[in-house]
TrEMBL record:
Entry annotated with the keyword Magnesium: no
Chain's role: Modulates transcription in response to changes in cellular NADH/NAD(+) redox state.
Organism whose genome encodes this protein: Paractinoplanes durhamensis
The encoding gene: rex
Similarity comment: family membership: Belongs to the transcriptional regulatory Rex family.
PANTHER family, sorted: REDOX-SENSING TRANSCRIPTIONAL REPRESSOR REX, REDOX-SENSING TRANSCRIPTIONAL REPRESSOR REX 1
Record's protein name: Redox-sensing transcriptional repressor Rex
Length: 250
């Protein structure tokens, strides 16, 4: 996945228990904050009031030193011998991620993938609401999907204003994605999640996240290939086993 990010944004003021000023975070830290938030919600639902850095790191799948450094950017250092306050840390991270307000999302492209995304319950539980579905296919316009009526892409400018669209999701074929991105930008949408297998050209003030499932599968294919290359040596010995035999015999 790729992201474009330009400059920093100032918050509108401090909240109780939240960071006092909007931090300019490293990209790697931004990418890990949602993992920390997911782990914290799971811990909170399990009844935990506090969590050590080691416990939270394990739940999020990172090392504890990296986690402590990430959270220090938020001004959160935990309490020695106690750890982090789960509820407070959730509030801090949600504030920084802008999840203290619900973000309106429009989805363009209601093919198989678009249908699946429109019905994904995880968006609502994480602070996002799909408020509009759009498509260029007249056969799909007017169809009701998960309570929403599909509107024509030509209505995007009006929809963006009516619904105060914060984020546009592109789930069209690659050949249509750039035109859709252009229309989103023209309508004033400056954050785009792109599921189409292509690179979008957008203005500098527009942030794009790209999700390419085929690329993720190709990366996994590399790891499968690498593992297979380590298992078959002459005589049926594995590469690991051969290494151990050499070490013992040396």
């Amino acid at each position: 996945m790729s992201q474009q990010r330009h400059g920093s944004t100032s918050g509108n003021g401090a909240r109780a228990g939240a960071v006092s000023a909007f931090p300019d975070l490293p990209e790697a830290t931004i990418a890990r904050l949602p993992e920390y938030l997911r782990a914290l919600h799971n811990l909170g639902e399990g009844g935990a009031d506090t969590i050590s850095s080691e416990g939270l790191a394990a739940a999020a799948g990172v090392n504890s030193a990296k986690l402590r450094k990430d959270l220090s950017h938020l001004g959160s250092y935990g309490t020695r011998g106690v750890g982090y306050d789960v509820a407070l840390l959730i509030e801090q991270i949600e504030y920084v991620l802008g999840l203290d307000q619900r973000r309106a999302v429009c989805l363009v492209g209601v093919g198989n993938l678009g249908h699946a995304l429109a019905g994904y319950d995880g968006f609502a539980s994480r602070g996002f609401k799909i408020v509009a579905l759009l498509d260029a296919d007249p056969a799909k316009v007017g169809e009701r999907i998960h309570g929403l009526i599909v509107r024509h892409i030509d209505e995007l400018p009006a929809v963006a204003v009516e619904e105060t669209i914060a984020i546009g999701v592109i789930a069209t074929p690659a050949g249509a994605a750039q035109a859709v991105a252009d229309e989103l930008v023209t309508a004033g949408v400056t954050s785009i999640l792109n599921f189409a297998p292509c690179v979008l050209s957008v203005p500098a003030n527009v942030d794009v996240r790209k999700v390419d499932l085929a690329i993720e599968l190709q990366i996994l294919s590399f790891h499968e290939h690498r593992k297979a290359s380590l298992t078959a040596l002459p005589g049926g010995r594995s590469a690991t086993g051969a290494g151990n035999q050499e070490a013992v015999g040396s």
